[in-house]
DNA sequence: CGGCCGCTTGATTAGATTCAACCGTCGTGG
DNA sequence: CCACGACGGTTGAATCTAATCAAGCGGCCG
């Protein structure tokens, strides 16, 4: 990101309420309409813990991981955001510093920027949006309860299945292509443990693996594993 | 709770914005000012998963647990709410059914009720409150990231220490007095494991235990354990 | 009095982490 | 051009944490 002043993408700003109407559904991305666009390589940082937000971002292409550093620096991935999703708005709205980090999960991830000033101005002049925000934030809060219960009560094996199901969707049913370490950090386990499970799934013909790429063969088997 | 029509507590309704200004700080409770009040025994249910909310509640006395049923019916406690806190507002605001359950953690827990109708009316006529809501909900969302990281990356021993620290505060520095099972469900572990850890802490003179009551002796030792 | 519930303890098992080593690839610099 | 080192991925073995199973205890209520 650096320190150069970023300019708001006016096109994205104007489509903001679409995001909150559709509740996270992607907004079609058309390159020429965007005023500014930032291209990222894998692991390039979008924002980081402790810093104060200067605006929000929209993912246009690729995937972004939201994560926290836990004990001894181990990443815990909290969220994966795909094209169309808005990131960083919680810190802007709460007026607190970021308490998480965001970085590109893949090469060629593309995002745009909307300044806090523009975002707040837009929000304040739009009562509908405010109500949708309240509704959206509340919905998300509810979902966290499910997430916590999944993370605490399921085994690593089950969580791995859940992660694959989630990524299958994030990759639009195509091959999953993430670093083993990132996968492990999503599941909340050691990289070695994750690899062993991937191998098991491969042996059971639930997935195929070629290098970093994972293709799901038997989706319902994964669901069965996840649900116990 | 039952099916009898509940009446909104007008006093609490009028103090609602105080809650969101103070960000969860207790609102002093004065019995005679409250129009209606509901007295609960331990484990009495306030609301439950799947049901549609009819209103929100404020805790006046005692403690309320918010929890979810995970696999094979095991409770995962998501939150503990003390006097002054508002519960159930996320489902009202998201307009979804509850995805968690609420029940009294102790005997003699007292709550009051504010109907969705009154709450929404109040909210809609109060722009300040709406903005505070957005801010409050966003802050809470940020906090969940920390919570998830704690739950996934810390050992049962560390989480037990965290739970005791939290409850110490919830009990206003007095003796903690919760069922072992509830404690285990906060930590996200088996009751037997929790008991063994409590014993360890007792042996190390970090706490004293008499029956259900736990008194913390060495607060900083607990913090050290929790932080690793 | 009998039975249930919450609590506790012991023994065993299973799941997952940790440590150590090795491999292949890729990029860099001598 | 090759050597080297870094990095991501993988495997094996040892270890440890926590879950599970089984049983016993004490108190309280019907």
List the helices and strands and how they pair.
Two copies of one chain form a homodimer.
Chain A: H1 10-14, H2 16-22, E1 38-40, E2 45-47, E3 55-61, E4 64-69, E5 75-81, E6 86-87, H3 89-94, E7 101-104, E8 109-115, H4 116-124, H5 127-153, H6 156-170, E9 176-177, H7 180-187, H8 191-203, E10 207-210, E11 213-216, H9 219-227
Antiparallel strand pairs in A: 1-8, 2-7, 3-6, 3-8, 4-5, 4-7, 9-11, 10-11
Helix pairs in contact in A: 6-7, 6-9, 7-8
The first copy, chain A, binds a DNA duplex (30 and 30 nucleotides) through helix 8.
In brief:
The structure is a homodimer of 228-residue chains. By secondary structure, the first copy, chain A, is an alpha+beta fold.
Would you mind describing this structure in some detail?
In chain A, 43% of the residues lie in helices and 21% in strands. Chain A has 228 residues and is α+β, with helices and mostly antiparallel strands. Chain A has 2 domains: 10-151, Jelly Rolls, CATH 2.60.120.10; 154-227, Arc Repressor Mutant, subunit A. A 4-stranded antiparallel sheet of chain A has the order 1-8-3-6. In chain A, strand 4 and strand 5 form a beta hairpin. The longest helix of chain A is centred in the middle third of the chain and has 27 residues, at 127-153. The interface between A and B is large, with 42 and 41 residues. Chain A binds a DNA duplex (30 and 30 nucleotides) through helix 8.
């Amino acid at each position: 990101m650096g320190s150069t002043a970023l300019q708001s993408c006016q096109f994205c700003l104007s489509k903001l309420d679409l995001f909150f109407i559709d509740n996270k559904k992607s907004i079609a991305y058309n390159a020429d309409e965007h005023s500014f666009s930032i291209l990222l390589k894998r692991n390039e940082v979008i924002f980081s813990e402790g810093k104060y937000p200067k605006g929000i971002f929209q993912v246009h292409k690729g995937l972004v991981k939201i994560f926290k550093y836990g004990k001894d620096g181990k990443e815990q991935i909290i969220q994966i955001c795909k094209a169309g999703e808005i990131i960083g708005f919680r810190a802007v709205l709460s007026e607190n510093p970021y308490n998480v980090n965001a970085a590109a999960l893949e090469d060629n991830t593309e995002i745009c920027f909307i300044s806090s000033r523009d975002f707040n101005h837009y929000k304040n002049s739009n009562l509908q949006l405010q109500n949708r925000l309240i509704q959206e934030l509340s919905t998300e809060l509810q979902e966290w309860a499910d997430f916590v219960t999944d993370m605490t009560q399921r085994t690593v094996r089950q969580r791995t299945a859940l992660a694959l199901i989630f990524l299958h969707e994030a990759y639009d049913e195509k091959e999953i292509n993430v670093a083993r370490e990132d996968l492990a950090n999503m599941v909340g386990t050691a990289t070695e443990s994750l690899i062993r499970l991937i191998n098991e799934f491969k042996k059971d013909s639930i997935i195929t693996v070629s290098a970093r790429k994972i293709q799901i063969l038997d989706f319902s088997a994964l669901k069965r594993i996840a649900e116990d």
